[in-house]
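R.M. (postdoc): so does anyone remember the format we settled on? I'll just put the structure tokens first.
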């Protein structure tokens, strides 16, 4: 299937795990805010030769399961991963391996960016706050 950009709009929910590996021509994956709350895993372990960027909004992949895994492996063209605040909060594993062109990994927004020292608790990232494994290897 030919698909260069896939955008999942905000407030979209899947009851099963999403599979993107069949989209071999996918270049950009954009998932909005408050999406995919019932998934326990976010995995790209099959090589997608064209994938260059993954962008995930805030409050996405917030499962009640505390054994979720974020795993990206063997993505030769992947250049950026951007994850919004409070996404993947209950995930216990974060692994990004074999992505030789990865230049940008942004997990949550820097609270100092607003120059406001009175930030509410909800504005902090909290992504992967329960992670027991955090592995990054080009």
């Amino acid at each position: 299937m030919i698909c260069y950009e896939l955008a999942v709009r905000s407030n979209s929910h899947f009851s099963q795990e999403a599979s993107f590996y069949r989209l071999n021509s996918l270049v950009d994956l954009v998932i909005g805010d408050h999406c995919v709350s019932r998934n326990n895993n976010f995995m790209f372990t099959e090589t997608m030769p064209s994938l260059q960027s993954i962008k995930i909004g805030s409050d996405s992949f917030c499962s009640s399961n505390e054994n979720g895994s974020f795993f990206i492996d063997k993505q030769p063209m992947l250049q950026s991963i951007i994850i919004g605040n409070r996404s993947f909060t209950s995930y216990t594993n974060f692994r990004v391996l074999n992505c030789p062109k990865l230049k940008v990994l942004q997990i949550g927004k820097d609270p100092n960016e607003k120059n406001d020292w009175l930030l509410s608790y909800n504005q902090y990232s909290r992504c992967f706050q329960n992670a027991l494994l955090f592995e990054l290897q080009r």
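R.M.: ...and that's the designed sequence above, right after the tokens. Also worth knowing: The longest strand covers residues 91-97. Residues 40 and 65 are 6 Å apart (CA to CA).
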